[in-house]
């Protein structure tokens, strides 16, 4: 990848591209959870959500951009029944897998969580078969909380605390 990837917080002007990226990621992989409301979400509604998220000390959307196109995303979403806890989700367009973008996005989210947010804990769930992702999360400091079988898949919940 000769061109420079920019990793930054999502802006309201990203709403249309963000919706397109989420639809693309939903088609390219089964390892990302996408909001069920996505098909009905308008650009205006997405822009409003980005605004609300940017005001939150517990939620964040960070994007990776290449030549003006969004190519990756990491989200931190507050867990409603656990104070100071957010769930992390990350996705990168398939053609750019295994180039360090997911790691860079998660690293940036962790930096935001430690320096800007009011979060004390980040959790995530990953398929055990996604060995590369599990390795990245461990390398960045996540620890396994539990492993369980669900619908024929082994799931791992991981966490990092500050």
Automatic annotation (TrEMBL):
Pfam families: Acetyltransf_1. InterPro entries: Acyl_CoA_acyltransferase, GNAT_dom. PROSITE patterns: GNAT. One of its GO terms (molecular function) is acyltransferase activity, transferring groups other than amino-acyl groups. Residues 5-162 form the N-acetyltransferase domain. Keywords: Transferase. This is Acetyltransferase.
């Amino acid at each position: 990848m000769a061109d420079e990837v920019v990793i930054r917080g999502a802006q309201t002007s990203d709403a249309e591209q963000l919706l397109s990226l989420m639809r693309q990621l939903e088609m390219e992989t089964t390892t990302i959870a996408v909001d069920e409301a996505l098909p009905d979400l308008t650009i205006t509604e997405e822009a409003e959500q980005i605004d609300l998220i940017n005001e939150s000390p517990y939620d964040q959307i960070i994007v990776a951009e290449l030549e003006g196109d969004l190519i990756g995303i990491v989200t931190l979403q507050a867990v409603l029944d656990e104070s100071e806890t957010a769930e992390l989700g990350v996705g990168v367009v398939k053609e750019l897998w295994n180039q360090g973008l997911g790691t860079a996005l998660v690293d940036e989210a962790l930096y935001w969580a430690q320096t800007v947010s009011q979060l004390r804990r980040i959790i995530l769930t990953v398929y055990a078969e996604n060995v590369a992702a599990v390795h990245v999360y461990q390398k960045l400091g996540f620890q396994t909380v539990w492993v369980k079988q669900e619908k024929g898949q082994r799931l791992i919940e991981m966490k990092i605390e500050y």
